[in-house]
TrEMBL record:
The chain crosses the membrane at residues 6-22, 29-46, 66-85, 106-131, 151-171, 178-196, 202-218, 225-245, 337-357, 369-387, 393-412. It comes from the Bacteria. This is Putative capsular repeat unit polymerase. It comes from Klebsiella pneumoniae. Signal peptide: none annotated. Keywords: Membrane, Transmembrane, Transmembrane helix. The keyword Membrane applies.
Length: 422
């Protein structure tokens, strides 16, 4: 039954992916969901089950594996339903994609203000720290209670700014040029991102998401061919490239050598399935949150001194419940919805996510510049880390970056002198 449950989950997502490709309705979000389920979630978990070795202690029982596959299947069904309902294909290939928005001096001043967290963070830890490995930066960041939020604001805020400048640069007419002040701000954004978001100091999934966002901006991903190419390349990226990138970011220089099968069954990168099982165990013993886990993620900016009962991230709760020594673990989105409200929570959550992301993928494929475009850019490009979770860890970073993009874009719209551009 374990094999059958895994096969059904993989087959359903693969067939829906093929269906959307044939209908030319598959965008970035859904492509990444299928990649996550098949290559990151199901394949490693089946290898772990076959070898009877999992990343963490307290191995799942067969009934727990089947149940975890079942709730993931339910999530997949309603995600697809919502997605196919809300996705609207644009048939007008002559749609004007250019934007004649001008970046005013006021908008450039807003850019400077939004870059303050990045400048402060760089000044505190030093430029060289960002090229000494992720573990080195992590030790500096988490040694101080103030730095983690500044770290998130600097990295994702800086990328949110860069995304807006890149979009405007790509979409501007050929006969339009950036002004001197705008060009300087664009260059400054590139330099700051090169420092704070370089692959040596950035978590791999964060860097991957930013790289995907840039590909979306340049319209190199999102179509049928690019979706198929990304799906086929995913095993190589996840199982070969990611371990190498991880080693590049190790400040110790101690590069472990192991086989692919050992990496899949023992590597903590692929603990999503076991963490989903741990979440179901936690819910069985402790009950449901009734949505507080999502409220806490959205309300990340409220300090615990004010919100004393603020919920802890679900990944930490599930890991602590199992008695793990290391608790900052993932919490798959399926588990977050299950914790929020059982099977009904999964159905409602999956349908809502499908309706939202079908719309955002439509906007991205349309490529018409608007605030919705940037919302879609952030949700779709960063969806992989949303799937992996925990929501309480992911939401602050994404919201800070998205807010930076929207604040800058709105300031450009409000101060733009050219009429009828949006």
């Amino acid at each position: 039954m374990v094999e059958i449950s895994c096969f059904i989950l993989v087959l359903f997502n693969f067939l829906t992916f093929m269906y959307l490709l044939l209908r030319n309705k598959s965008g970035v979000f859904y492509t990444l969901w299928v990649i996550f389920v098949i290559w990151f979630f199901s394949f490693p978990s089946y290898m772990q089950y076959s070898y009877r070795i999992f990343p963490w202690a307290n191995y799942p029982k067969d009934t727990e594996i089947i149940f975890s596959n079942l709730i993931t299947f339910i999530f997949s069904v309603f995600l697809f339903a919502g997605y196919i309902i809300s996705y609207k294909k644009i048939n007008n290939h002559n749609l004007q994609m250019e934007s004649r928005l001008c970046i005013s001096n006021v908008a450039n001043v807003v850019t400077l203000l939004l870059m303050i967290p990045s400048v402060i963070f760089i000044a505190i830890v030093g430029v060289s720290s960002f090229f000494m490995g992720r573990s080195f930066v992590g030790e500096l960041v988490y040694s101080d209670g103030f730095l983690p939020m500044l770290y998130a604001a600097s990295k994702f805020g800086a990328f949110g700014i860069l995304a807006v400048y890149l979009v405007l640069y790509i979409k501007k007419p050929k006969n339009q040029k950036f002004g001197l002040f705008s060009t300087l701000m664009f260059i400054l954004a590139i330099i700051i991102n090169f420092i704070v978001n370089n692959p040596l100091s950035s978590p791999r999934f964060h860097f991957l998401s930013m790289a995907l966002a840039i590909l979306v901006i340049f319209r190199k991903i999102g179509g049928r061919l690019s979706s198929v190419a990304l799906f086929l390349a995913s095993p190589f990226l996840l199982f070969i490239v990611f371990p190498l990138v991880k080693h590049l970011g190790e400040s110790s220089g101690d590069y472990n050598k192991y086989g692919l099968s050992e990496y899949l069954v023992k590597g903590v990168d692929f603990d999503s399935f076991q963490q989903l099982v741990n979440i179901t165990r936690f819910v069985t013993d402790k009950g449901y949150s009734w949505g507080e886990n999502f409220v806490a993620g959205i309300g990340f900016f409220i300090p615990r001194s004010i919100w004393q009962t603020k919920p802890t991230n679900l990944g930490i709760l599930a890991a602590e419940h199992q008695g793990y020594f290391y608790t900052n673990l993932s919490a798959p989105l399926v588990g977050e919805f299950y914790y929020a409200g059982d099977i009904i929570g999964i159905i409602i959550g999956a349908l809502a996510v499908g309706l939202l992301t079908g719309k955002t993928d439509s906007v991205l494929n349309n490529s018409k510049l608007s605030a919705s475009y940037f919302i879609g850019l952030w949700i779709s490009s960063f969806s992989f880390i949303i799937f992996r979770g925990a929501f309480g860890s992911v939401a602050p970073m994404m919201m800070l970056g998205l807010c930076a993009s929207l604040v800058l874009y709105i300031s450009i719209i409000k101060t733009n002198r050219t009429p009828n551009l949006n």
